[in-house]
Write a structure and sequence with these properties.
The protein is built from four helices and five strands, in the order αβααβαβββ. A hairpin with a 4-residue loop joins strand 3 and strand 4. It is globular and about 70 Å long. The termini are far apart.
C-alpha cells in the first residue's frame, strides 16, 4: 500500500511538474509571440516621435513668438474691374468691403483713427483733406486694399496668424471718356 501511495504521489508530482512546464512554455510562447508582433509592428510602422511640450518655443504675439514677417505689405483686389473675367467675379462674389470702408471713414472723421498721406507716410491728413478726397472719389469705387501685416507662426498648433497693422484703400481710376479701367489710386493709410 505504501508503494502504491508512493507511486501515486510520484505520478501526481510528475503530472504537476509537466503541467507547470507546459504553462510556463505557453506563457513564454505567448510572451514571445507578443514580443514578435510588437517587434514586427515597430519595424513595419514605428510610432511617431513624441515631442515634449517644452520643445515648442513659440506662442502667438508674445516675446517668444516666431515672427514670420514684420511687416509684410501686399495688395488685394476687392472689386472686379474686369468685365469679362468670370474667375474674378466668382472669387469676389462674397466680398463686400463697404461696411469696412464706412467704419474706417467714420473712425477717421470722429478722430478714433488717424489718416496718413500714402506718399508721405508720416504726414497726418486733416479731416477736410479726407472730405475733399471723397468729393473726388466715391467709396463705391474702392477696388483694392493694401494691407500691412505681421505674420506669426505657432509651432505648437501649426497655425499662421495675421495681424493687420495698417491698410490703404485704393480707388479705381477710369478713363473719363471710355470708362476703361486704368489702375488704382491710393487714398490714405490708417494704422490699426
Amino acid at each position: 500500500m505504501k508503494k502504491t501511495s508512493l507511486l501515486a504521489l510520484c505520478a501526481l508530482s510528475a503530472a504537476t511538474a509537466c503541467n507547470q512546464t507546459n504553462n510556463n512554455n505557453s506563457e513564454a510562447s505567448a510572451a514571445d509571440s507578443t514580443a514578435e508582433v510588437q517587434s514586427r509592428n515597430v519595424i513595419a510602422a514605428p510610432p511617431p516621435p513624441v515631442i515634449k511640450e517644452t520643445e515648442f518655443f513659440y506662442d502667438f504675439d508674445s516675446t517668444s513668438a516666431m515672427i514670420i514677417s514684420d511687416p509684410i505689405t501686399y495688395e488685394v483686389v476687392v472689386k472686379n474691374h474686369k468685365t469679362d473675367d468670370d474667375w474674378e467675379e466668382e472669387r469676389l462674389a462674397k466680398t463686400d468691403i463697404k461696411p469696412l470702408a464706412n467704419a474706417i471713414f467714420q473712425a477717421v472723421y470722429k478722430g478714433r483713427l488717424k489718416a496718413y498721406d500714402y506718399f508721405e507716410e508720416e504726414r497726418e491728413m486733416t479731416v477736410s483733406e479726407i472730405k475733399a478726397l471723397e468729393k473726388e472719389f466715391n467709396r463705391k469705387d474702392i477696388g483694392n486694399i493694401m494691407f500691412e501685416e505681421k505674420w506669426y507662426f505657432n509651432e505648437k498648433t501649426l497655425t499662421l496668424t495675421k495681424k493687420v497693422t495698417g491698410l490703404t484703400f485704393g480707388y479705381e481710376l477710369r478713363d473719363p471718356q471710355t470708362k476703361e479701367f486704368q489702375g488704382f489710386k491710393a487714398a490714405f493709410k490708417v494704422k490699426l
